[in-house]
Amino acid sequence: MVEEVSVSLFWFRRDLRLEDNRGLEAALRGPHPVIPIFIFDRNILDKLEDRRDRRVTFIHRTLSGLKEKLRSWGSDLWVFEGTPIEVFGRLSAAAPERVRVRAVYTNRDYEPYAVRRDAGVAELLTASGATFESFKDQCVFERNQILNQSGSPYTVFTPYKRKWLASLTEADLALCAVQPLRHRFHRVTTSPPLPSLADLGFEASESSFPGTALHRDTLRRYGEERDFPARDITSRLGLHLRFGTLSVRDVARQARDIDPVFLSQIVWRDFFMQILHHFPHVVKGAFRRDYDRIPWRRDEKAFARWCAGNTGVPIVDAGMRELDRTGYMHNRVRMIVASFLCKHLLIDWRWGERHFAQRLLDYDLAANNGNWQWAAGCGCDAAPYFRVFNPWLQAKKFDPDGTYVRRWVPELGSGDYPAPMVDHKLARQRAISVYKAALDGSTPDPRERDSLFD
Fold this sequence. Notes:
alpha/beta; Rossmann fold; Crypto/Photolyase_FAD-like_sf; chromophore; Deoxyribodipyrimidine photo-lyase; deoxyribodipyrimidine photo-lyase activity; Cryptochr/Photolyase_FAD-bd
């Protein structure tokens, strides 16, 4: 009879790397050999509308690489499909290779679904006699680590950033090494195979994905040139930070030593994560609840034109087409297209947020929600409602020779390109009037709200 072996599991989620992985290091330093696992969560996959979703392809390729590396170390990655409760129920009852699961280690996730998921898994494991251990890994500071003098969370970025920078120590950015501990992985002879994309109900995307290298030249030029989309002086690391194929601590260390403007982007990321943790109502409504009174226009035809990059406003259309074709959009352009939807078209920011969630390679709930609420004026540290980006002036300032626009809107200047959907001056006046009436507690006249679309 084969003797049962006690093991720990390390559950990969938003941390798809072997090096500088806090939860994985803790598991390998624990009392039992470690089996790494990944779960294709049907609760997430079943909500994806595009069967060729680029992110699923990226995850699948990354997992294939992890399996190959772990096999070279004499271990393997066990990959499952189903809901986490179903998978851990099976593993608790009868794991492969006659192993007994004594502990599950993982890195924390702060999104509402993830919090509920982990609470359910922890309860199931406790009932089976196993423990559930979670660690901070996807941000530099989390939850209650950065609070104001009264012990409350910051809701304005600038003082949060000052406290974040003042609190930062070498220990916060210390990198942990996993390779010296690789002998602590469970030695396996068989493991569940990696499901194919077809097994999961998806098709491979032909997308190419950015690398993980952070070039020093990009960092040096970032502060001065980041707002010019044609120059593309951005890191393209959002995808890797989203899925943890790159350590945020490693990125923050490099940014700290070269460019404080780039480091601020890491601080913004932490800021929005702690906002989501402390104020989960932002997932469905405005951070500033009085903005929920705004009577958004439910104009599906206008929304469809915005999504398709067919608004007649060149820089807006360029950004939306770039998103559709690549899964990426330059950050300055994201602000312009978001402002146009919320202010010029008076369409609910949540519609835009949902569209970005479906398309962005680097989609992150906290950052996406925070930035959309900033654009709509309803979030923490938001742009005031009377700030309405002029997309023509934005294009003139940040794409002065039209290089970016021409790349994505080659028909500009021909009879094939439509006239602008709205006049900027009239749309701005209308937005300010509707916002002001709603925030004053009165009911805006629907005729005024829809006046530009008669």
